[in-house]
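Project standup — Tuesday

K.O.: blocked on the structure for the chain from last sprint. Re-posting the sequence here as requested.
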Amino acid sequence: MTSNAMRLFNYTPVLFLFNGYWMLSNRQIFENVLNQLESSTNQMTSAHYWSTLFDFTQASPMLLISMVFLIIIILRAFFGDKMRKWGFGISNNIIEVDENLPNFYHALKLSDADWFVKEGNYLRENYNFTFAN
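H.V.: unblocked you, prediction finished:
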């Protein structure tokens, strides 16, 4: 994996938590709130408003957890060096990612390369399927 992908993976839990909150707070499913349309040219509202954030529902714990994670990410982004200096770092280990990986076929042992070629031939002959060039 590249360093850029590893850096972006820090934000995926927060995005999924907010998405989960949005799905779990769906008023149409859980509260039978329907937004009728007066005509087919109007857009249906989602019944998700800023005021519904303060309603205590089954989705409230997920919202609280996602807010805490968001605060942690903001603190890490702006005050990461000071937090590590004070001992609030997540890890002291620096992840080293080898981005100059060799060619797949040059990295394989000869026995594994032979098996890989035979497997490819078998799939091509019996199933008309190839998984590698």
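K.O.: great, moving the ticket to review. The chain has two domains: 3-85, 103-133. The CA atoms of residues 59 and 74 lie 23 Å apart.
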